[in-house]
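Supplementary notes for students who missed Thursday's class. We covered one full example, reproduced here. Read the sequence, then the structure, then the short commentary at the end.
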Amino acid sequence: MLSQFSENKIHQVRWVLTIGWLILIFSLFYDPISYILTEPNNSISPFSLSHEVFTPEGCIKVQQECLIERPYPIGARIWWTIIVPSSIIIIFVFGHEFWRRICPLSFIAQIPKALGIQRKIKIGNPRTRKFLYQTVAIKENSWLGKNHLYVQFGLFVLGLFTRIIFINSNRTLLGIFLIVTIISAFTIGYLYTGKSWCSYFCPMAPVQMVYTGPRGIFGTKAHQDTKAKIPQSMCRTVNDEGQEIRACDGCKSLCLDIDAERSYWGELKKPGRRLVQYGYLGMVFAYYFYYFFYAGNWNYYFSGAWTHEENQLGDIFAPGFYIFEQPIPIPKYLAVILTFTICIGISYLLCFGLEKVYKAYRKNSKKPVSEEQAQHNIFTLATFVAFWIFFPIGGRFSTSFLPTLGFISFKTFMLSVSSIWLYRTLKRSREQYNRERLTGTLRKQLEKMNLDFSQFLQGRSLNQLNPDELYVLAKVLPWATQQDRKRFYISVIKEELGSNRINVVDSTKIFKPLRQELGLSEETHYEILNQFLTEAKPNNKTLAKVWDKKCGI
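Structure (token representation):
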């Protein structure tokens, strides 16, 4: 949605958000003012404590004991109940590209590059003493490149554990935690090129992956937007002439910032992908329901008392469960670990089993689905369920200060948005995506024929045809012989490969629907590719080497 906004404007937005974040962090260490907003007698503040919490009948109880309530600085409450939930809602509604262009951590990770102080290594030939200095990229075939989803999901779970045990209500520790996170993002930005922090380390990345799916509701369609010089949230900069240009360092081939849906389908089988999707569902359930398991009531969470609890660190070794009005003698830190582990495990096994059952059921129906499509459909349902655990529970306290009409309007909006997202996402498939991404090239090649297509299209133009209709048109043109269709196919391949929108290795699957419509064999595809790469070898040795290695030509 923000892909068309200029980098200068978004840069200003990032600065404002980053400065605001730093001010909030400072307030966690020193804030002599904001506690006034929580005074019980402050009738104009939405954060004021209710007089009832100071009475034995209305106090917030944890394991049947009243919490001590006093006016408190609101920095931690703003962070946990407004900023964090807002980021999730932004990602789900507006898509990853909106969030990635304004994310303060992503911005901070790019500061070493902007200052020209990134780490560089020396490469070259010692014999000739000719050396070059270049920034370091994380190799995608390295251990981290292959398994970063495990790392990021592990950091995400560790962060939630740390929240409940140490930093939910301890403002000093929360401030230190956020500063360490900022330093980590800056350090990764110094050590590695591009958006390595976002792609390989950021604990928020699995959340973006889950809630974005193929794309957000208001996200742009990078694979169809042929007019956009810089797609989605791709790295960009402004040159000396004031023109916005690409600044991609190639830190990841299937980059979420260039084409979110291409990244989605390309990484569906990546190690850790199911754990992220199904584990996140269990993690959301575990995180919010643990407050109930610990306190013995929902009022503890919905009141927000956990954002300013005075003795959080002192309860680490206290009973971690209170079930059926009985404390369970398991230390709180161990109870959290058990809750997280059990819920993640059950969620993973349940969703994975559902995926297998769904595929088997559809296999015996008139419309069977592939393993990939079954996985996608269960992924989509898991995201929808996770959102509707998060929103009514996690979002309830965050929106409690809204007037009744505002709360109802917001809830109606989120119900509508999530339903639309579910409907649109369930229908997506890799085949549909591949067809759509070739739509622009098909139209361009058909227009080159200078034929009057209106006689075949009942007055419609080529621009009014959907991808399926374009494929059929390419097949049934009355003059099209086998040789004509082959020439047309060659033109499409050269257009796509020449523009670097796809790579050679993936082209066989991507062009399969078009090949089927044109009645061409896979052998014909390889023959055309071999010819194309033979011509390209003098100018593109890297491309030729990749092809030689993958396909033995």
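Commentary. Residues 193 and 537 are 28 Å apart (CA to CA). The chain has 24 helices and eight strands. If anything here is unclear, bring it to office hours.
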